[in-house]
Amino acid sequence: MTTRLEMKSISIEFPGVKALNDVSFSTETGTTHALIGANGAGKSTLMKVLSGAYNHYTGDIYLDGKKVSIRSPKDAQNLGIQIVYQEVDTVLIPYLTVGENIMLNETVHDMGKKQFVSWKHIHEKATNILDSIHVTISSKTLVSELTLAEKQMVIIARSLVKQCKFLILDEPTAPLSHSETSELFRIVRDLKNRNVGIIFISHRLPELFEICDEITVMKNGEFVSKEKIAETSQNRVVEYMLGEKLEEQFPKYKVDIGSNVLEVKGLYDNGMIKNFSMHVNAGEIVGIAGLVGAGKSELCKAIFGASKVTAGEIKINGKKIRIKDPNQAVKHGLAFVPEERRKEGILVQETVATNLTAASLGRFSKFMSFLDFKSEKKVSNQMINNLGIKTPSEETRVQNLSGGNQQKVAIGKWLIADAQVYIFDEPTKGVDVGAKKDIFELISELAKRGKSIIYASCEFSEILGITDRVYVVYDGQVAKELATDSTNEEELLFYSTGGK
Predict the structure, then answer these.
(1) Which residues contact 247 (CB under 8 A, 6 or more apart)?
(2) Which of 92, 108, 193, 476 is the right S-S partner for 295, CB 3.0 to 4.6 Å?
């Protein structure tokens, strides 16, 4: 039996921001529905209203024409509405087992009613749920031992403990490899066949057109359009998202490649990176291409001093240097925009101004190390305008910005610091097509100014679109060095999967 979900005239405000303005959204069970929009469009906010995370909204929610009240996560769960957030580590308890995490709410209930816990019952029921979606993870495995993809499967399994009518997936494929994404899609199709309604938030248009039946587009906190996937196109969706046609994504600048700036020889870390050698010239964008888990992030962190190097050498402008920590890396002219921006790239509880100036505080220090707040504010506002960061003011907390704008802040702090070598690790992860173009423009401008760029990504189309040269990484080693203009995605995939 089909259940219809309707959200009507939903509005919500936060200090200085109207996040949703009279938004309506509808879907039904047995359907996979894409929800898309540029960063800051209000997609995640609308779904947080539906899942009970925000309760100060106005408007109404209906199930099969009956008005329901959702003011807490428990309200949503009791109605069969579950959400899987992008940051899976925030909703799982790492030191508990898979079974305990899946049955967490049931465990608490049992303790209150019976004063004891039947561990056998917990693991049996958790195993049955995992088996029902064909996931082969032992219920007795600690969550801390799982991969990111496996953790997502555990959260999905937890959502099925009680009858799930609607499952919200917020950027579920952003950290996943191709094979892991395929496995997730198998589960999505299985749940759809079991009459669960899937609401799928993603910036990856090709996968939305592969897995979804309908698509709703939002822009600036408002509803724009709803169409059947079979009756629209990717270009049309992009136009709805941005309000204009998307021109060529990758800037085409003629840059004269200079002399060698960064050289890495025979680098080893504590286990992942093995005998890695590479070089980057002035004005050159060098790609580090590989699948999820190939060692790209570990390499970036090793070069920047964020992880221990056990052997090898690093040279800047021909001079051998020792980088024991990120502080030394910054002094030697290195900048690093990490993959996990919320954990490692920004201070989410601090203001935009504090984040933008964090890497160059000496520039804003006066007598006895007091900060020159007037100068900090001036430079921050210049960077906000230059990068097009959408924020009410420089005093807004970064946690209140969209993912794309958070990434611009993470990049902006290094532009103020004016480094010599810029390391970007998956810089477009979780970023919409419009913000991606802005980031590509920023990186190309840096190269034009003679900066040396390392661009690590598993998105081979981006590697081909923006780099001059590419090192393909497999199992922590260089599998192949290629000139970008003489290779293609098939060759990159061949070497990144261990091809010889």
Answers:
(1) none
(2) 476
Residue intervals of the chain classified under CATH 3.40.50.300 are: 4-242, 260-496
Structure tokens at 282: 């002035």
Give the side-chain half-sphere CA count within 13 A for 271.
1
What's the mean pLDDT in 442-453?
92
Percent of the chain with pLDDT over 70: 96
Examine the pLDDT at 252 and tell me if it is beyond 80.
no
CATH number of this structure's domain 4-242: 3.40.50.300
Task: Yes or no: say if 174 and 144 are a contact pair by the CB < 8 Å rule.
Answer: no
Write the Ramachandran bin of 318: left for phi over 0, alpha for psi from -120 to 50, otherwise beta. left
Nearest to 431 by CA among 204, 267, 120: 204
C-alpha torsion angle, residues 8, 9, 13, 18 (rounded to 10): 120
Residue 422 pairs in a beta bridge with 335, 453
> In 236-344, where do the E strands start and end?
260-268, 276-281, 285-289, 311-316, 319-321, 334-337
pLDDT in tens, 349-373: 889 998 998 888 777 776 666 777 8
d(CA 47, CA 27): 13
Instruction: Please name the amino acid found at residue 201.
Output: I
Count of other CB atoms within 10 angstroms of residue 389: 26
What percent helix, strand, coil does the chain show, rounded to 5? Answer: 40, 25, 35
Average pLDDT over every residue of 239-256: 76
Strands (E) located in 404-468: 421-425, 452-457
CA distances (Å), origin 98, targets 91, 92, 104, 133, 499? 13, 9, 10, 15, 35
Looking at domain 260-496, its CATH superfamily turns out to be P-loop containing nucleotide triphosphate hydrolases (3.40.50.300)
Distance of CA 166 to the CA centre of its chain: 23
Question: Is the pLDDT at 228 greater than 50, yes or no?
Answer: yes
Helix residue spans in 262-325 (DSSP H): 296-304
Q: Are 201 and 47 in contact (CB under 8 A)?
A: yes
In 29-124, the DSSP E strands lie at 32-37, 58-63, 66-68, 81-84
